Amino acid sequence: MNDRMTERTAAAVMARCRLAGGAAGFNATPVPGLAVVVRTRAGEQRSFQKPYVALALQGRKRTVVGTTEHVYGTGDVVTTCIDFPSFTTVEEASPERPFIAAVLELNRDLMTELALTLAPGRPASEPPGQPFFVSPATEAIADVFLRLLELTERPAEIPVLAPILVRELHARLLLGPQGEWLRSICAYGSHASQIARAVSLIKSDFRGQLVVADLAGRVGLSEASFHRHFKQITGHSPIQYQKLMRLYEGRSLLRSGRRSVSAAAFEVGYASASQFTNDYRRFFGLSPREDARNGFAAAA
């Protein structure tokens, strides 16, 4: 079922989003991994994305991954399947007409399991580089989002029904326009799956020293091939990717008020607080102290 989301379903999902996401920013719901994002002003945001699927219901955004731009808004579904840093500009949002999207974290292991079930033994094609896919929302995908949002008002049913609906949404994505792209990323042996594994390895030890040749060998690629495919898919070299992961983790520690600048720098793997400050200012446009004072209000 790949027909477009109907106006009736879009209106129903929007109504549920307004109930679940009344405040500007990231509104978590009682359903694990499900949130409603509300942005009330235009502007640039920099973030480190985890695998997710988002149904945009109002407004428009532009996300840059590496050198590729993706524009999406009302009626679109955005799918990612690899952790990656991005530059996002909210282009259409205001207090009167905010950007609104329903977002669900994706489970790569579940996606891989379902991909193998749907196409056992079928070799996956290599996807175009990029960890990001935009497509018009189908009625089937929008309907699952609607049922998940409705579930937030029946908390006693969440432990039983939420896992079923989350599994269905993963399956609907594989059956939808983004299905071949997702399967190629999740399939064992594809370059995308090798880079996804490398990303997981970097995440597990982003504070340590990264030896690119060793990492390439661990995922079964030559160093030259590893560099090429890593940058194609994430938009960054492996060393740049690790640095950005450190900076984003440092930012999270600072904005939570749990660490001083020097403590955050050392905790995320920097040997020098001054180098951390220089890299931070160059990337985020503010010093760590200035950014920490802004807190999460800057993301609203």
Helix and strand arrangement:
Layout: H1 7-20, E1 25-28, E2 34-39, E3 43-49, E4 52-58, E5 60-65, E6 68-73, E7 76-80, E8 84-92, E9 99-105, H2 108-118, E10 132-136, H3 139-151, H4 158-175, H5 179-186, H6 191-204, H7 212-218, H8 223-234, H9 238-255, H10 261-267, H11 273-284, H12 288-294
Antiparallel strand pairs: 1-2, 2-9, 3-8, 4-7, 4-9, 5-6, 5-8, 7-10
Helix pairs in contact: 1-3, 2-4, 3-4, 4-5, 7-8, 9-10, 10-11
* Helix proportion: 40-55%
Stretches where pLDDT is under 50 for at least 5 consecutive residues are: 296-300
- Sheet-strand content, in percent, reads 15-25%
- What is the gyration radius calculated from CA atoms? 20 Å
Oligomeric state of the chains in view: single chain
Distinct helical segment count: 12
Largest sheet: 6 strands, antiparallel
- Could you tell me the mean pLDDT? 87
Note the overall shape. Answer: globular
Strand order in space, largest sheet = 1-2-9-4-7-10
Number of strands: 10
Distance between the termini: 36 Å
Helix-and-strand structural type: alpha+beta
Secondary-structure element order, as H and E?
Answer: HEEEEEEEEEHEHHHHHHHHHH
